[in-house]
Inverse folding.
C-alpha cells in the first residue's frame, strides 16, 4: 500500500466502524450489574431551596441511593475559569435545568419512578432573563456574592479616538442586532459510564472534549485526589463545544462512591440535554460605524451583551473572543468596543462552534452592507477597500503577521462564476419569488490566547507487530482529527494506514493536552505529533543504520512496515526492529505550545486571561444565493460558496466536511434554530419544536480552500473547525436585503418574521 | 410495560379487541410512540394493525379506488394507481414527514389521529374521500368530512377500526395542486397547507374547483363560496385577490410554537393567490 501523504483525501479511520455501528461511543457502555444514575432538575428558573424531600423515593424498590449536595465532600463547584456551578444545587436554583438530587437505581424504570417521587420545596425568587436589565439597578442577583453584581465579565478594547473619529466621518450607520440561543443538538446526548475500582481509581468513560481538564474539575469538585481519576474519551457523537466542560462527569464521580465496584451509567435523554446543556449565548449588539468619503472605515463603536445564564461555563471567554472579532477583517483606526457577559436565569450560555464570533460577525457584516448601500458602493467593493493585509495593525492594535489571505479570498470570490453570474440568476426569479445574493467576510482566531497555555503532548510508539501507535491527547469529536493525526505521523514515518494505530484519549495512556476546541485541535497536537514522529523516526533509523552496517544514516529510510537499506537493497521489518530497540527507544514524546502575540492591546489582565489577543487567524468570504417567497416569507438558500484561507490542507475531504458542516449549522442559526425560553421555561423542549435543518434545507455548497502557508502550523495549516459557521447568517441576511429590500435585525429569519417585514415595507411604500 | 398484540388477520383482531376492550389501536405507531414516550398513553395494552394484510393495498374498482387503511405512505407514494388518479395525494405524501416516517406511518393512522395539520387530509377532502369503518359485526361507510370531528376526535366507536378509504376517480380535474408551508422542507408539521383540484378549460377558464386548507382550524377548511367565485373565471390576480379575504375570514387558526394565528390567516390567503401561477 502507498504511504500516507499530506494533502491527500484519505478515508477517515473511523468511517467503517461508525457506519457499520461497531464504534463504541460513551453512550454504548453498559456492563453486568449496571447501576443507572439520573438527576432531578429544578424545573424553575430562580428559587431558594427550602428542602429536598427524598424519603418516598428512597424506599422505592430498586433505588440504591439518593444523593444531594450534602453528600459532596469537595467544593461542589465546577467551571473552567470561574468555578460557579454547583454539581448539585445547595441553597439556590439558578435556572430550570439545575441538578438538585442524584438518584442511583437498579434499572431505568425505578430511576424514573424515583425521580418523579422526589419533591422540591422551593421558594421562588424573581428571575432575570434579559442581560441589559440584569445589569440595571435593582435587578435580582444571580450570585449574591459576586462583586460585579450580575456582570460576570466586562471587556473593553479601544484604539484611536472614537469621538474625533466619528467627527471625521462622512457617513454613519447605526443598528441593533438580536440573536437567540442556539442548541448544539448533537446526535449523541450527554453520556458517561463510571466505576470505582478496587485500587481506588475512579474510571470515567465519557463523551467529552476535554478529558485532562475534566480530570481536575472532577477531583476538585468532589474533593478527591486527581491521581485517582482516569478519564477515557471515545469518539464523541457530536459535541460542537457543548461537551467542552463537565456534563455527567462529576455526577458519575459522586455516584461511584455509593456503589463501589459496580458500573454506573448516566445518559441524558434529548429533553434533558436540551434543558441542562449550555447553548450559544443570545446576544444584543449595538453597532455604530462611520466611514470616510472614499468608503474607508474610520470609526466603529460597539457595545454588546451576551446572556451567559447563571454560570460562567466558558461565557467570559466566549464574550472576549466576540470582542476581539467585533470589527471583522478590516482596517479601522478609531475603535471602541465594550462587551458584557451577564448572569441571568436563562439556560447556561457556553461554548458553541464559533465561540462568540458568529454573533459579532452577524452584526458587523450586515453593517458593511448597510454602509455600502448608503454610499452606493457594491458590498464587494466596500470589503475590498478595507480588507486587512499582512503588516497592517488590526483594529484592536495588534500587528497582523503570518498568513493573511483575506484579500486573496475576495479575489477568488470575484472571479468565481457564482459571483459573476449573480445578476443573471437573480433576473430569473419565478412568480412571487425574489432572488438575492449576499456576501459576508469571516475571520477566526485560533487557540487559547496569551495566558492559558495552548499546549499538546504527543506520544508515539513502535509496537511488537511493527506498527506505529499514536496516542492522541485531543478528542475527535466528529471532525476527523484522529485520522489526520495518523496521516501526519504516517507521512513523516512513510507508513501506510495498515502500519498505523490509534489510541483515543485516555488520561492514563495519553500525555496531557488541551481540549478539542478553539480551532486548535489539529494545529497544536499536529505540531507536537510532528516532533514525536520525527524523533522516533530518527531513533529507528539510527539503530537500523547500525544493523545494516551503513556508513551513514542517509543510507536507510523507512518504508511501509520496515526499513530499507538503499545501498544493499535489504530490508528489515518493523516487527524485527521492535526487538532490536530497547524499550526506552520505542517511545517518543514531544510537547508543543502555540505561539502567542507579543503585543498587548489591553492592560486588563482579566481580558488577557480570557484570551485576548490571538496571533493566528483564518479568513474567508462567503457567498449565498437566496430566494424569498413573497407569499409565505420563506427563505430558501439555493446555492452557497465558501472561500477559506485556513492555511495548507492536510486532508481535503475532512476540510470540506468541516466547511460544509459549519455552513449547514450556520444556515440553521440564520433561518430556523431558536431555543425559546420564556421566564426561564423551555418552550422548545425537543427536536419536534427546536427546528434544525434537514439535508433538504441545505443547498449545494462549494468550498474553495486558498491554501496559504502558515509558518507556525503543522505543514502550514491553520484552524478550520469554526470559521465556516460565522458567515451564513450575515450572508443570508445580506442576500435577503438584496432580494427584497428588507433587513431583519432579529434572527432567526423565520418565514413569519420575513412576511411581517415585507408587509411593513409594503405599507411604508403605500404611505409614501 | 404494556402488552402489545400483533394480529395477522381481521378474525384474530376481533377476538383480541373483544378481550382487550380498553386497548389503544394503532398501525405505524408514528404518533402513538411519541405519546407513549411522553407517558400520555394510559391504556393497559396496545393492538397493532400493521401486520393485517387485508387492510393493505390499493384496489381499483371501476370508477372508484379503495385504499387499505394500513397502507404506508411510502407504498401509496410509489403506487401507480394513486399516482395516475390522485396526483394531489401524491404531492402531499411527498412532503409528509420524512422517508423513515413514511415507511412506518399509514393513511388510516393519519386519518384517525385527526391532527389539524395532517398532510393527507386536505387532499382527501378535495377528493371527497369516504372512510370504511368496520367492527366485528358491522361495516359502515361515511364521508371523511363527517368522520373527523375535531383535533384527535373522530366518529370511531369502541370496537371499530377504519379499514379503508374509498375515493372516486376525478378524471375531470386536470390540475392537482398541493402546497405545504412548514418550518423546514422535511420533517415539518404544516403551518398552513392547501390542496386544490381544478378543472381548467382549453381557454384557461376554471370550470370546476375544490379547495381545502389544512392546519388553519380544528379540522380541514373548505369553502363553497370561494369555489363558486372562481368558477367561470380565469385565475387572474384580480379574481384571486377578491376571493382571498374570504379565506382569511373562514379559517380559525391558533397561535402555537410554530406560528401565530395572524401568520396562518395571512398565508391561508396568500396560498390562494399563488394558484394563479401554478403550472399545469
Amino acid at each position: 500500500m502507498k504511504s500516507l501523504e499530506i494533502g491527500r483525501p484519505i478515508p477517515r479511520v473511523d468511517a467503517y466502524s461508525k457506519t457499520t455501528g461497531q464504534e463504541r461511543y460513551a453512550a454504548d457502555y453498559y456492563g453486568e450489574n449496571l447501576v443507572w444514575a439520573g438527576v432531578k432538575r429544578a424545573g424553575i428558573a430562580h428559587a431558594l431551596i427550602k428542602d429536598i424531600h427524598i424519603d418516598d423515593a428512597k424506599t422505592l424498590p430498586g433505588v440504591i441511593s439518593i444523593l444531594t449536595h450534602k453528600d459532596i465532600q469537595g467544593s461542589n463547584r465546577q467551571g473552567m475559569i470561574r468555578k460557579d456551578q454547583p454539581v448539585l444545587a445547595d441553597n439556590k436554583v439558578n435556572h430550570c435545568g439545575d441538578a438538585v438530587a442524584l438518584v442511583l437505581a437498579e434499572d431505568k424504570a425505578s430511576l424514573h419512578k424515583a425521580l418523579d417521587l422526589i419533591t422540591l420545596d422551593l421558594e421562588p425568587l424573581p428571575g432575570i432573563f434579559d442581560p441589559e436589565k440584569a445589569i440595571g439597578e435593582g435587578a435580582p442577583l444571580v450570585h449574591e456574592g459576586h462583586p460585579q453584581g450580575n456582570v460576570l465579565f466586562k471587556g473593553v478594547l479601544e484604539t484611536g479616538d472614537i469621538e474625533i473619529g466619528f467627527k471625521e466621518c462622512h457617513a454613519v450607520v447605526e443598528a441593533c442586532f438580536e440573536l437567540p440561543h442556539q442548541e448544539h443538538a448533537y446526535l449523541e446526548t450527554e453520556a458517561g459510564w463510571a466505576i470505582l475500582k478496587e485500587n481506588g481509581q475512579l474510571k470515567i468513560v465519557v463523551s467529552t472534549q476535554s478529558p485532562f481538564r475534566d480530570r481536575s474539575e472532577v477531583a476538585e469538585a468532589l474533593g478527591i485526589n486527581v491521581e485517582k481519576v482516569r478519564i477515557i474519551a471515545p469518539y464523541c457523537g457530536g459535541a460542537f463545544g457543548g461537551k467542552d466542560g463537565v456534563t455527567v462527569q462529576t455526577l458519575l464521580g459522586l455516584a461511584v462512591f455509593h456503589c463501589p465496584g459496580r458500573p454506573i451509567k448516566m445518559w441524558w435523554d434529548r429533553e434533558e440535554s436540551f434543558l441542562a446543556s449550555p447553548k450559544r449565548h443570545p446576544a444584543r449588539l449595538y453597532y455604530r460605524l462611520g466611514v470616510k468619503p472614499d468608503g474607508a472605515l474610520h470609526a466603529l463603536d460597539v457595545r454588546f451583551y451576551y446572556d451567559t445564564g447563571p454560570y460562567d461555563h466558558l461565557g467570559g471567554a466566549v464574550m472576549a473572543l466576540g470582542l476581539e472579532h467585533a470589527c471583522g477583517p478590516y482596517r479601522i483606526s478609531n475603535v471602541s468596543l465594550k462587551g458584557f457577559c451577564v448572569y441571568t436565569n436563562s439556560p447556561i450560555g457556553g461554548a458553541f462552534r464559533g465561540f462568540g464570533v458568529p454573533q459579532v460577525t452577524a452584526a458587523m457584516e450586515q453593517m458593511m452592507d448597510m454602509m455600502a448601500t448608503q454610499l452606493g458602493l457594491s458590498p464587494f467593493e466596500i470589503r475590498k477597500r478595507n480588507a486587512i493585509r499582512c503588516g497592517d495593525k488590526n483594529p484592536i492594535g495588534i500587528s497582523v503577521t503570518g498568513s493573511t489571505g483575506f484579500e486573496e479570498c475576495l479575489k477568488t470570490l470575484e472571479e468565481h462564476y457564482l459571483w459573476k453570474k449573480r445578476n443573471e440568476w437573480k433576473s430569473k426569479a419565478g412568480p412571487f419569488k425574489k432572488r438575492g445574493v449576499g456576501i459576508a467576510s469571516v475571520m477566526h482566531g485560533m487557540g487559547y490566547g496569551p495566558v492559558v497555555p495552548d499546549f499538546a503532548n504527543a506520544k508515539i510508539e513502535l509496537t511488537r507487530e511493527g506498527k506505529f501507535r499514536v496516542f492522541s491527547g485531543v478528542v475527535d469529536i466528529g471532525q476527523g482529527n484522529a485520522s489526520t493525526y495518523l496521516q501526519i505521523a504516517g507521512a513523516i514515518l512513510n507508513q501506510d494506514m495498515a502500519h498505523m494505530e490509534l489510541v483515543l484519549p485516555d488520561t492514563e495512556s495519553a500525555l496531557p493536552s488541551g481540549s478539542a476546541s478553539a480551532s486548535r485541535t489539529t494545529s497544536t497536537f499536529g505540531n507536537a505529533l510532528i516532533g514525536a514522529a520525527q524523533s522516533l523516526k530518527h531513533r529507528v533509523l539510527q539503530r537500523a543504520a547500525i544493523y545494516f552496517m551503513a556508513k551513514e544514516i542517509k543510507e536507510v529510510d523507512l518504508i511501509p512496515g520496515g526499513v530499507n537499506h538503499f545501498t544493499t537493497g535489504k530490508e528489515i521489518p518493523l516487527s524485527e526492529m521492535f526487538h532490536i530497540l530497547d524499550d526506552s527507544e520505542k517511545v517518543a514524546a514531544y510537547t508543543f505550545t502555540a505561539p502567542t502575540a507579543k503585543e498587548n492591546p489591553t492592560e486588563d489582565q482579566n481580558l488577557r486571561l480570557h484570551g485576548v489577543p490571538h496571533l493566528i487567524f483564518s479568513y474567508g468570504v462567503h457567498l449565498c444565493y437566496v430566494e424569498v417567497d413573497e407569499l409565505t416569507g420563506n427563505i430558501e438558500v439555493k446555492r452557497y460558496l465558501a472561500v477559506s484561507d485556513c492555511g495548507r490542507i492536510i486532508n481535503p475531504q475532512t476540510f470540506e466536511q468541516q466547511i460544509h458542516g459549519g455552513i449547514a449549522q450556520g444556515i440553521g442559526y440564520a433561518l430556523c434554530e431558536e431555543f425559546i425560553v420564556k421566564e426561564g421555561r423551555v418552550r422548545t423542549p425537543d427536536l419536534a419544536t427546536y427546528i434544525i435543518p434537514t439535508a433538504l434545507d441545505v443547498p449545494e455548497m462549494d468550498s474553495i480552500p486558498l491554501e496559504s502557508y502558515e509558518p507556525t502550523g503543522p505543514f502550514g495549516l491553520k484552524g478550520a473547525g469554526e470559521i465556516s459557521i460565522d458567515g451564513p447568517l450575515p450572508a443570508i441576511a445580506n442576500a435577503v436585503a438584496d432580494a427584497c429590500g428588507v433587513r431583519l435585525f432579529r434572527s432567526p429569519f423565520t418565514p413569519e418574521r420575513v412576511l411581517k417585514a415585507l408587509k411593513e415595507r409594503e405599507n411604508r411604500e403605500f404611505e409614501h | 410495560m404494556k402488552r402489545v398484540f400483533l394480529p395477522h388477520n381481521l378474525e384474530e383482531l376481533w377476538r383480541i379487541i373483544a378481550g382487550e376492550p380498553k386497548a389503544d389501536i394503532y398501525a405505524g405507531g408514528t404518533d402513538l410512540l411519541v405519546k407513549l414516550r411522553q407517558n400520555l398513553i394510559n391504556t393497559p395494552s396496545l393492538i397493532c394493525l400493521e401486520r393485517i394484510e387485508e387492510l393493505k393495498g390499493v384496489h381499483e374498482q371501476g370508477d372508484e379506488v379503495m385504499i387499505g387503511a394500513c397502507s404506508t405512505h411510502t407504498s401509496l407514494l410509489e403506487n401507480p394507481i394513486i399516482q395516475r388518479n390522485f396526483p394531489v395525494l401524491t404531492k402531499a405524501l411527498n412532503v409528509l414527514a420524512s422517508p423513515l416516517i413514511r415507511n412506518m406511518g399509514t393513511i388510516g393512522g393519519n386519518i384517525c389521529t385527526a391532527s389539524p395539520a395532517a398532510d393527507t387530509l386536505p387532499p382527501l377532502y378535495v377528493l371527497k374521500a369516504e372512510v370504511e369503518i368496520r367492527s366485528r359485526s358491522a361495516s359502515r361507510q361515511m364521508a371523511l368530512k363527517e368522520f373527523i370531528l375535531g383535533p384527535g376526535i373522530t366518529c370511531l366507536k369502541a370496537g371499530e377500526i377504519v379499514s379503508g378509504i374509498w375515493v372516486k376517480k376525478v378524471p375531470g380535474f386536470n390540475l392537482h395542486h398541493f402546497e405545504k408551508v412548514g418550518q423546514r422542507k422535511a420533517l415539518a408539521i404544516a403551518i398552513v397547507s392547501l390542496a386544490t383540484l381544478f378543472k381548467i378549460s382549453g381557454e384557461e377558464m376554471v370550470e370546476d374547483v375544490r379547495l381545502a386548507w389544512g392546519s388553519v382550524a380544528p379540522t380541514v377548511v373548505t369553502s363553497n363560496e370561494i369555489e363558486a367565485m372562481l368558477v367561470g373565471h380565469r385565475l387572474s390576480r384580480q379574481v384571486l385577490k377578491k376571493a382571498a379575504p374570504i379565506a382569511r375570514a373562514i379559517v380559525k387558526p391558533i397561535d402555537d410554537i410554530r406560528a401565530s394565528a395572524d401568520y396562518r390567516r395571512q398565508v391561508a390567503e396568500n396560498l390562494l393567490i399563488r394558484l394563479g401561477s401554478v403550472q399545469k
Observations:
- Residues 521-547 of chain A form the longest helix (27 residues).
- Chain A has a mean pLDDT of 97.
